[in-house]
Amino acid sequence: SPKLYWGPLFQTMLDQTSQKHIIFYSFNKDAQSGLEALNASGRMLAFNGDYLHIKEANLGGAKSNLFVTEAVTQNYEVKNDGGIVKTVTINYKNPFPPSDCNLERGKLCLNAVLRDWIRIYVPKGSQLVTSQGSEVKLISYEELNKTVFEGFLTIRPQGVAKFVITYTLPFKTELGSMLPVLIQKQPGAADFDYTIEVNGKKVDSFPLSTDKTLKLKL
After folding, report:
1. Is 64 helix (H, G, I), strand (E, B) or coil?
2. Which are the contacts of 72, defined by CB distance < 8 A and separation ≥ 6?
């Protein structure tokens, strides 16, 4: 490759790594430590504050997730005693018509029903209050020093779906204080829109293109 392309190619690699479209693993422990220091290995991070990581897997044979968009809203409700009740709402939309999935006709089945296995990683010790949208019983457990809420739902072509979960955070805060928040992007995911609300009032919105840290005034 001519040298004039090296700079842009290296910058593209850095951008794709930051956006988690490229992640690295090395059998060399020192090299792996360096990659993790650069947040280039896809590791879920320890964090002192609120944490959110939405991890989803397409359990169908089609590539339906390519056609589905997601919009995530996080609402913090601060109680008088400093307790925090958080609601995460995920709105799914597939505006495209279904593929012809008749294999006997030799068609390419890309856009079919998305069978979505969803896991939501939150601070360890969070307690479920209510949930809506899972087509199986929602379960919770601990993994990677986080609490995980796990469910399953389907999104059909030219259809919409909603997943809502409400839980209490395992710590309290003072009204008007700053809450550190880390949102980690799933590797390979699109830049879905995120909205932050406090007591139902919008305070921030952004596409989640990389891991994002912010300080939220409660």
Report:
1. helix
2. 54, 88, 89, 90, 91, 192, 193, 194, 195, 208
Percent of the chain with pLDDT over 90: 71
Which 3 state secondary structure label does DSSP give 57? Answer: strand
Supply φ then ψ for residue 33, to 5 degrees: -60, -40
Mean pLDDT of the chain: 92
Tokens of 148: 């995980």
pLDDT tens per residue across span 26-84 = 999 998 998 888 888 888 999 999 999 999 999 987 889 899 999 999 999 999 889 99
Retrieve residue 67's tokens.
Answer: 């056609």
The CA distance from 76 to 218, in Å, is 8
| Residue 113 to residue 101: CA distance in whole angstroms | 11
Q: How far apart are the first and last CA of the chain?
A: 52
Buried b (16+ CB within 10 A) or exposed e, 62-98: bebbebbebebbbbbbbeeeeebebbbbbbbbbeeeb
Residue 106 has pLDDT above 80, yes or no: no
